[in-house]
Structure to design on (368 residues):
């Protein structure tokens, strides 16, 4: 049975029986003592919008730990939006390799060019204008507006969504409860200090109000938390069971000539768009007929294909991929790109291709 305060319509002073101003103050005090010192937070409240934007794009679907070295490397190589706009896309994709979701890197470059050309190198400040830029959706626009420009925008990332769902005991699938969570987030956001508030909520979710085993005993807003009062903190957010991912498979070709391996570049759009890869058949469900890449048809008779032992598997967001790897001598093929076997780790291969590179190196036939 629901608590009488649970699922109550929010109002501006009291949220499900809690005093908003007091909650905001407790959160702010905790954040000033315990907030995380992250590289993109240097500069206190006077943040460089370029670094805020870069960090927010990198942090989409990616952890702080993974992002940190990439962020530092990008800021060293390209310290301004103009510097990033001026480099070739391939350099950006190379530097992004391993961070995943490569459409972000292409949009990053497109956004840097737009801000440089159309906005004289200055990011717009309002969420509405920010959302018109490539790669910036509603969440990222709100985060940049609040954190870089202290605009009173309500920011809702995964951590904040969970904290709000628990504070107000929203025991529904967050996807279905999106509108309510948005409403609470807007009412919780202060008119001034929205950036600190957003980062405090993010940190609370990351450090204390964790997905499992929230540390309610030391939580600065425990006195305001309805889920804690009801003893249901661990049951929120409610997650519907995930459907099983489909499996796809393909053949990959490790074609070698003089200690070098043949790569190719993927089409600019789509999964791993614009990244280097090994030639392969299309990634399809198991029942699909095999369509070999042209290059396999051009191997000379001495280039008989041989299957390497084992294989490589990888899981993307929407499917599992199983790969068999075939090798052949490719003396009859001239056009590249060819990369020395020992340099495969240095050319900016995405994670899946690095797995294949390591498998190929381990099992390849020694040169004749
Ligand atoms: Fe999260 Fe517990 Fe704090 Fe509630 S009291 S916000 S569940 S950590």
């Amino acid at each position: 049975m629901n608590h009488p305060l649970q699922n109550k319509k929010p109002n501006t002073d009291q949220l499900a029986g809690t005093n908003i101003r007091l909650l905001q103050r407790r959160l702010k005090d905790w954040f000033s003592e315990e907030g995380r010192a992250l590289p993109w937070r240097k500069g206190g409240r006077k943040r460089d919008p370029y670094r805020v934007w870069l960090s927010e794009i990198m942090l989409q679907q990616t952890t702080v730990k993974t992002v940190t070295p990439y962020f530092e490397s990008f800021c060293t190589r390209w310290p301004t939006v103009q510097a990033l706009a001026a480099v070739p896309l391939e350099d950006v994709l190379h530097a992004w390799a391993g961070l995943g979701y490569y459409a972000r890197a292409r949009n990053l470059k497109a956004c840097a060019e737009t801000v440089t050309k159309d906005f004289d190198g200055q990011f717009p400040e309002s969420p509405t204008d920010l959302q018109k830029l490539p790669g910036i959706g509603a969440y990222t626009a709100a985060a940049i507006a609040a954190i870089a420009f202290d605009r009173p925008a309500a920011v809702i990332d995964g951590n904040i969504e969970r904290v709000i769902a628990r504070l107000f005991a929203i025991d529904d699938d967050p996807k279905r409860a999106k509108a309510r969570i948005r409403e609470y987030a807007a009412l919780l956001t202060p008119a001034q200090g929205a950036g600190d508030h957003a980062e405090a909520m993010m940190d609370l979710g990351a450090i204390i109000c964790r997905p499992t085993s929230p540390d309610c005993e030391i939580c600065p807003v425990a006195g305001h938390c309805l889920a804690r009062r009801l003893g249901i903190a661990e049951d929120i957010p409610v997650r519907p069971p995930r459907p099983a991912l489909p499996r796809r498979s393909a053949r990959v070709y490790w074609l070698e000539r003089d200690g070098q391996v043949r790569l190719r570049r993927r089409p600019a759009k789509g999964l791993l768009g614009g990244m280097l890869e090994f030639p392969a058949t299309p990634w399809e469900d198991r029942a699909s007929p095999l369509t070999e890449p042209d290059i396999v048809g051009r191997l000379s008779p001495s280039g008989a294909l041989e299957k390497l032992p084992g294989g490589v598997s990888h899981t993307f967001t929407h499917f599992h991929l199983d790969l068999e790897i075939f090798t052949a001598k490719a003396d009859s093929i001239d056009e590249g790109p060819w990369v020395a076997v020992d340099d495969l780790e240095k050319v900016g291969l995405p994670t899946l291709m690095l797995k294949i590179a390591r498998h190929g190196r381990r099992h390849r036939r020694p040169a004749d």
Observations:
- The chain has a mean pLDDT of 91.
